[in-house]
Amino acid sequence: MGFRMGIVGLPNVGKSTLFNALTRTAAAQAANFPFCTIEPNVGDVAVPDPRLDRLAAIAGSKQIIPARMTFVDIAGLVRGASKGEGLGNQFLANIRECDAIAHVLRCFEDGDITHVEGRVDPVADAETIETELMLADLESIERRRANLARKLKGGDKEAADQDRLLAAAQAALEAGRPARTVTVAEDDQRNWKLLQLLTAKPVLYVCNVEEASAAAGNAQSARVAEMAARQGAGTVVISARIEEELAQLPADEAAMFLQEMGLDEAGLDRLIRAGYQLLGLQTYFTVGPKEARAWTIRKGTLAPQAAGVIHGDFEKGFIRAETVAYDDYVAGNGEAGAKEAGKFRVEGKTYEVQDGDVLHFLFSG
After folding, report:
1. Which H/E stretch holds residue 294?
2. What is the pTM of this model?
3. Where are the alpha helices (DSSP H) in the chain?
4. Cβ contacts of residue 191 below 8 Å, gap of 6+?
5. Which residues contact 201 (CB under 8 A, 6 or more apart)?
6. CA distances for 255 relative to 46, 246, 262, angstroms
7. Which has fewest Cβ within 10 Å: 71, 166, 360, 361?
8. Which residue has better confidence, 40 or 48?
9. 150-192, pLDDT tens digit by residue?
């Protein structure tokens, strides 16, 4: 599994420029006017992980298959989107299908690029979007609770559980807090996710800064970082312009360009890492002569469920997992060396897969 991140923001903040850079395509038209993105543009990108290349080199793998993540470029929201202003309703529906939301915030000054509200204030922009999503959630909750009334009178337990969760979300929203601030019991997690509330989704603030501030950020991105810290949200500083230039360069030239800009890595790498952290994701590997492959799972995933990411039959017929930690695999120059060093392990159904594990699953077909 990868994950699906919706890129949202007010018009003209650099969303489509960033999307184009991330997916290395020009599918999303980046133009200086609102609603240039009419349909959500969806792009799958490879998750950069140098560990995979190292494993493939050691194993002599013929093919390298990285993990993938999906970005959805959702057209610019405006004030009143929850009431259908702009192209609001359509895009709110697109957000519901994403695992997380990346709020792209304009943290740069440029007189040639019009701001839809006539000023550059990323914190106010974030509040505008959050308010629209909260209003949309409130409207949805009120409608759904009204529809549950008849089932509640009939003593329907499932309806009662749903109404209880909706009521908790409604109380938070009416108090001016997003649904993600609600404490949800472990037993309720599945039903809570099924509610698909917009403000229950984890948020990552993407500060789009001018090129000169790409390494350290600027005063505006610092304000966003303070806001995110108060909310428990993630932040990442990116220059969409730099990412756009990088996307068009060969790997060796891109590395030199990053060095010249004083950057250790591309914004894509930072964005994916922040997204992984936000959703509690990690990577395990399968390695052999045919291919070296990365797989994405949530932290805390047990071995049978990790096997199920490859194929459902692997989970159903799971017998055991043979595993070597990444560092031990590299130190032993492969599985044989790791075995000699006593680092090869056999794990059962209760094993919690760790980030970087090199796994081989045995199952009954």
Report:
1. strand 291-298
2. 0.82
3. 15-23, 50-59, 88-96, 122-153, 157-174, 189-194, 219-231, 240-247, 251-260, 267-279, 303-310, 312-316, 326-331, 335-340
4. 161, 162, 165
5. 95, 98, 99, 100, 101, 180
6. 18, 9, 11
7. 360
8. 48
9. 888 888 889 999 999 999 999 999 999 999 999 999 999 999 9
